[in-house]
């Protein structure tokens, strides 16, 4: 039986609550079943996965929400030309 620390479960629950009501556009599961990526309609990605220890046992559950860049035009353009 897989035992997941309560702190990991709380972190997953809080993250899922933050995306509640969002429309899911796409789901991708890694072939080794260690990671699930959920693409939301607003462009964010919800990534849930777990890390293995050296013995191949699950030891850490991870969850993250990745937001897309709002506006690429706000990037700082720095010239590296030193001739001048």
Could you characterize what this model shows?
The protein has one helix spanning 6-18; strands spanning 24-29, 35-40, 45-52, 58-66. The chain has 1 helix and 4 strands; from the N terminus they run αββββ. Helix content is 15%, strand content 35%. It has one domain (6-68). It is α+β, with helices and mostly antiparallel strands.
Short description:
The protein is of the alpha+beta class and 84 residues long. It has one helix spanning 6-18, and strands at residues 24-29, 35-40, 45-52, 58-66.
Keywords for this entry:
84 residues, alpha+beta, 1 helix, extended
SS strand fraction? 25-35%
Helix content: 10-25%
Our count of helices gives: 1
The main sheet comes to:
4 strands, antiparallel
Secondary-structure element order, as H and E?
HEEEE
Oligomer: single chain
Total domains, how many? 1
Spatial separation of the terminal alpha carbons: 67 Å
Helix/strand/pairing category: alpha+beta
Instruction: Estimate the mean pLDDT confidence.
Output: 82
Spatial strand sequence of the major β-sheet: 1-2-3-4
Global morphology: extended
Radius of gyration over all CA atoms, rounded: 18 Å
Number of DSSP E strands:
4
Which ranges are low-confidence, i.e. pLDDT below 50, for 5 or more consecutive residues?
Answer: none
């Amino acid at each position: 039986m897989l035992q997941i620390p309560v702190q990991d479960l709380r972190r997953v629950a809080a993250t899922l609550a933050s995306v509640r009501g969002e429309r899911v556009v796409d789901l991708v599961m890694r072939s080794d079943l260690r990671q699930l990526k959920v693409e939301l309609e607003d462009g964010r990605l919800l990534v849930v996965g777990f890390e293995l220890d050296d013995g191949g046992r699950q030891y850490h559950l991870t969850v993250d929400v990745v937001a897309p860049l709002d506006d690429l035009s706000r990037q700082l353009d720095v010239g590296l030309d030193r001739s001048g």
